[in-house]
Amino acid sequence: MSDRWYEANQRYLSASVALIRQTLEQYAVSLPNPDRLSNNDKSEPALQKAAEAMPAPSALERICQIFDLSDFERDVLLLCAALELSNDFTNVCSAAQPEGQKPYPTLGLALAALPNPHWDAIAPYAPLRFWRLIEIGEGHALTLCPLRIDERILHYLLGIQYLDERLTAIVEPLLAGNVLVPSHQTVVERVATVLSHAITLEELPVIQFYGKDFANKRDIAVAACKMLGLQLNVMSAQAIAVTPNELNNFIRLWNREILLSRNALLINCNELDPNDVSRVKAIAHLIERLHGVLIITSREKMTVKQRPAVSFEIHKPTSDEQGTLWRETLGDLIPQLNGEVDTLVKQFNLSTVSIQAARAEVVGHLSQKQENEIDRILWDVCRIQARPRLDELAQRIESVAGWEDLVLPPLQKQILHEIAAHVRQRITVYGSWGFGGKSARGLGISALFAGASGTGKTLAAEVLANELHLDLYRIDLSSVISKYIGETEKNLRQVFDAAEESGVILLFDEADALFGKRSEVKDSHDRYANIEVSYLLQRMESYPGLAILTTNLKSLIDTAFLRRIRFVLQFPFPDAIQRAEIWRRVFPASTPTEGIDPMKLAKLNVAGGNIYNIALNAAFLAAEAGESVQMKHLLRAAQAEYAKLEKPLTDAEVGSWTQQSNYS
Questions:
Q1: CA 323, 328, 329, 334 torsion: positive or negative?
Q2: For the whole model, what pTM was predicted?
């Protein structure tokens, strides 16, 4: 409001309070033995003059109109306001209530002194109490209890607008959002159109935004409310009270706030646990009872039964929009990238906020004189931006292994190189060469690594991640599977949805837990297991990256499933020559060794993973003894590893060691 309105409103409120004071003084004079009070009969003309000077309705008039107050209810409200605004009003109250000398307004005083009194004005269902315009203190009788104006209402009468402080603990104003891409701006306009056309209806529809990224939904909601002249506020679903009293108190306060100001509310249900029944019920109750513009955001589309709802699925910016964002955000850094922006867009599906954050981090690195490494820096920054949510769902494996660490037959190594080539060239083949336009199915790169434990399946995945400069996440399928119908698919969906931001390499370990020969459906468990497997394969086929399954028992996997996997790689148990080569490579260059004989060690009939364990344990034994790693340390470590495997250590494997006393 303008300064002119504010000043006129102050005068009007002062004149209204003065008239109430005059009314009480006249009532006090009529009492036996009245206290000496000044009797000013100029209040009514002053109020008329103040009303004529108002450029727009006063705050008091708005309150009366909003809450449909009667003349008596208005005067009760002013009676309570006068106590706060007039320094000596306590004297007036005491004079008007000589029996108890009460220096405050009461219902009894209002009924006796104010014109047009009616008892139901103070009833719980009447506006004054229902909307918490006034508060009733404690007393021996209702008519003797102190009356007090609510602080938010008092400030409103004075022309001061703010969000009720009882709401600020759980409701936070959303300020200006990010600049929107065209596809998101289109949604803004559609939402504004829906709400502006429905504004005359008795019940506005709920607006629901669903999708993976909260920031996009928030920015769209802010922009839509701005178009409608509304201030958007946000509250988390986790902050919603579940006890009836607290919940109803919030509903009443917020609905009052909607009447007093141009506010809208966004309830963020992105992290809502659907199994939290009490909170889900509380949200349903809120949706049914809250007034005004209400926006719900969630990852999955929610069913809203309580009132009309209009839903919008919100996606990240399109590839073209992300490219434009990158170019606008990076600005003068673009020439140094040598056309790598398109590669970034294809690899990392980031939101506007993530792209801006990536740019800020890159600039920080460049300030340390690393301009010649901008391509690598930007790539790594994008990897980090895409991690947070996936880190909550899977185990990230730091990939440091290279091809030289992998001891496999030539055919297996060739297939691994082909897998890497498919990941590197998928943008060219699917995009530039048009294969992606043929069908959306089968664009994912899937692989099955089969072999006994310790044969190098996880190590091969690490080598691929290091070669492709991508993050590697391990998901234990045995922990993902749920006995509850639909929960396994839900768990898998969360993993794939989070991974799609960056096209990380997904390593699904222990595939035996999910796969099996299900060609014959014998019971409901078999039928749902088939659904779960089909869902996993369908997501792997459409996942824009590499997804790897590992299994110790390939024979358990139905051939019908194998046909849907692009690469199937068998990791053989290493023979003696391969074991000797693994022993030659297992010790880091900085590890002190003495007298190590790879050919003798190769007689240990164990896989590469066990060889690494033996070498590591031997290193600890040698370090504790203050010696270099020797065969005697390896013998003790081998004995411990075999004991763990519950298999005997035969003379054929270590006979030549024990014959030499210095190894014992």
A1: positive
A2: 0.76
Query: What Rg do the C-alpha atoms of the chain give, in angstroms?
Result: 37
Cα–Cα distance for residue pair 619/598, rounded to 1 Å: 16
| CATH number belonging to the domain at 403-571, selected among 3.40.50.300, 3.90.1210.10, 3.40.50.620, 3.40.50.1390 | 3.40.50.300
Contact of 114 with 74, CB cutoff 8 Å: no
Q: Which long-range contacts (CB under 8 A, 24 or more apart) does 182-188 make?
A: 182/321, 183/315, 183/317, 183/318, 183/321, 184/216, 184/219, 184/220, 184/223, 184/314, 184/317, 185/223, 187/220, 187/224, 187/312, 187/314, 188/220, 188/223, 188/224, 188/227
CB 471 within 8 Å of CB 589: no
Question: What token pair was written down for 457?
Answer: 């399946």
pLDDT tens across 22-81, in order?
999 889 888 765 444 444 555 678 888 888 888 999 999 999 999 999 999 999 999 999
Those residues whose C-beta lies under 8 Å from the C-beta of residue 404, and which sit 6 or more positions away, are: 585
Helix, strand or coil, per DSSP, at residue 406: coil
**Separation CA 15–CA 26 (nearest Å):** 16
Q: Write out pLDDT tens, residues 131-168.
A: 999 999 987 888 889 999 999 999 999 999 999 999 99
Cα separation of 470 and 464, whole Å? 8
Homologous superfamily (CATH) for 166-313:
P-loop containing nucleotide triphosphate hydrolases (3.40.50.300)
